[in-house]
Amino acid sequence: MSIATRVLVTGAAGFIGSHLTERLLDLGLQVIGFDNLSSGDLSNLEGALRNPQFRFVQGDLLDSEATSGALGECGLVFHLAADPEVRFGAENPSAQFRQNLQATFNLLEAVRRRATNTRIVFASTSTVYGEVSTMPTPEDYGPLLPISMYGATKLGCEALMSSYTQLLPLQVVIFRFANVVGTRAGHGVLRDFITKLWKNPRELEVLGDGTQTKSYLHVDDCVDAFLMALDEEFWHGPVEAYNIGSESQTNVLDIARMVSDAIGLKNVAIRTTTEPGERAWPGDVKTMQLDISKIKRQGWKPRRCSDEAIQTAAMELVRELKK
Which domains are seen in the chain, by residue range? Predict the structure, then answer.
């Protein structure tokens, strides 16, 4: 049973946000899309903008007045707005602090000022766990010691939202995602490899030593998880955290081969950038696998394994980027 007819999606013009917006509109909901277009693109919302149930607001969560205006009477918020690039957090940590932590604080303050019942679904990340000693990693793993600015700010957002559930009529669901892949992705390993191979189809530079092994999730499966929040029975307490990922892993060298196959290339030479065992960049977690048994008990599971997610997304991205 749906619990809302009007919802707010922050980061609506982004990779995951635009896919989520389309699915919400398909279900007949009224959707307010809020985005500062720093990493999102209006072209991602081409279909949504033709739907009378959708209203786009260009604004920044750092603008308190604009945030309150976008929130309006929306009782359910899907909070995806963020600086999404893990890799560049070490180069510009203040940007991730503002766009992730400060922006989330401003959203919570808008909810506090409005003082009516609100539910927030927050797009967090597997990087909040840092480097772990337990794998697959469950939600109650601790201590949480992220090694990137991105993971640190996302963990800070989780803590802020948890505290605000004690101050307000607020419930929060936190989704800690594996690496999400699919069309409209503006960054990430697939887009990086495709772009490089189009420039030089004979050789591919792979950041790191190529042994990085992680779980990948197709964006369609990711959005399916978000839609769980439309069911009243999904909400149990003030705050719940769920891991969202696949039940398998893929290493970067295999991804390089899958992308080469999607483009139709053979005998591509792979060149790694670091010595064996070194990180690809500061803050990169080399191995990740999430325990998703908790969300599976709620009725969600991915339709694709990690390899299938990569193969499908690679072919989709090649078609998309050729247009």
Answer: 6-181+217-244 (3.40.50.720), 189-214+248-287+304-322 (3.90.25.10)
Q: Which is the catalytic residue, given 129, 150, 164, 216?
A: 150
Residues pairing with 123 in the sheet: 175
Q: Is 150 designated active site?
A: yes
Give the ranges where 166-251 is alpha helix by DSSP (H). 189-199, 219-227
Q: In Å, what is the CA distance from 299 to each residue of 100, 224, 233, 278, 292? A: 29, 11, 11, 39, 11
What's CA 34's distance to the chain center, in Å?
A: 16
3-state secondary structure of 194: helix
> Is 313:258 a contact under the CB 8 Å cutoff?
no
* Mean local confidence (pLDDT), 170-190: 96
Q: What is the pLDDT of residues 11-47, one digit of tens each?
A: 999 999 999 999 999 999 999 999 999 999 999 999 9
275: how many CB neighbours lie within 10 A of its CB?
Answer: 8
For residue 172, which phi and psi values (nearest 5 degrees)? -135, 135
Enumerate the β-bridge partners of residue 30: 6
- One-letter identity of residue 93: P
Q: How far apart are CA 221 and CA 136, in angstroms?
A: 19
CB atoms within 10 A of CB 60: 18
The pLDDT of residue 73 = 92
Residue spans of alpha helices (H) in 99-211: 103-114, 149-164, 189-199
Question: At 124, which helix (H) or strand (E)?
Answer: strand 118-125
The model's pLDDT over 32-86, given as tens digits with 9 standing for 90+, comes to 999 999 999 999 999 999 999 999 999 999 999 999 999 999 999 999 999 877 6
